[in-house]
Fold proline dehydrogenase.
Amino acid sequence: MTVFSATVHAATRVPAVRRLVTAAAGRGLVERFVAGESTDSALAAVRTLAADGRLATLDHLGEHVTDPARVAATVRAYLDLLAGVGDLPAEVSVKLSALGPRPFDAAAEICAAADRAGTTVTVDMEDSSTVDDTLAVVGRLREEFPRVGAVVQAALHRTEADCRALAGSRVRLVKGAYAEPAAIAHQHPSEVRAAYARCLDILMAGSGHPMIGTHDPRLIQRALGYGRAADTFELQMLYGVRVDEQRRLAAAGHRMRVYVPYGADWYAYFARRLAERPANLGFLLRSLVKG
Ligand code: FDA
């Protein structure tokens, strides 16, 4: 985690900053990263991706939800979405913290709906305090739905061991989007990249289905160098990030899946995208200044 990222992470939690960012949101930058607020807008985005051969994973935005009514609304949103997916090449991604303090039953309901729709679920990974519980829920879900995907964050020191344990299954490898202390996570971008490469070596040597979630050109190049058959792994990127590269990789015959977030609760997701890249913050500040 760079000083820039840590500072932006901290600033975006300040209520006044949240109000300013939300005010600027109508002006285009949020729309670059978030596919609208409704099921229809999310499915329209998937159709656009599918037109040039890109696959999708749809995320109904929301996290840290405790109110049972909001949990029920989130489950309903996923069921609606999955009812509309039809033949589109889409799976869904779910954050367990959107499903309340005991998320298993709600997650299992979403997995069952995905199964009926002929697709599957990948369970996102949130901050480091949630890793054990999240992997335990994924393990239980897999007893009934073996295709459920896990996410692991290369930045965490523990993750090489997690990769060894999970290498026979569907695993999405990402760098990690949360500010974590040095005692448990690599801090410098070059250390995170090196850790990612080691995790990639483990997953690509395994019998599972690695999902390589990164925009980093060197890591994508490395992933393509293992010589695995194109249908045994996926490259994955975020909606609105390196779109030309997404198209190029799909056109070259690689499985290229795009993470498509949608919904009204976009702030925390958007704040993480700002913290990743100074240029994104620059766009936002310019739109605020233009008023
Ligand atoms: P890095 O940040 O080094 O970026 C490499 C290059 O990509 C940059 O130089 C730039 O060109 C481009 N780029 C990257 N981010 C950009 C941005 N926001 N805007 C514009 N350009 C950008 N994290 C997590 O903790 N839990 C999770 O469950 C997930 N899930 C997830 C799914 C998928 C499909 C992806 C691709 C990513 C995630 N992440 C995640 C986020 C991940 O941890 C990480 O924060 C981002 O992918 C950025 O890291 P990169 O590997 O892309 O490298």
The CA atoms of residues 45 and 51 lie 10 Å apart. Residues 68-85 form the longest helix (18 residues).
